[in-house]
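#lab-general

N.A. 3:47 PM
ok so I finally got the sequence cleaned up, no stray characters, all 42 residues accounted for. can someone with queue access submit it? mine expired

B.Y. 3:52 PM
send it over

N.A. 3:53 PM
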Amino acid sequence: MWAQCRSWYRMEGGRIVALFPGFTAEYVKAVKTPDPKAYQLG
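B.Y. 4:20 PM
back already:
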């Protein structure tokens, strides 16, 4: 079961801190530069 697996996505306490359905390099590229249009500030 995915919720019980051990991976670098899971903190020691069991909390999942990132969930991305691709490869690590794809994740890094996707979050490297935020898209300001994706956020509503104010």
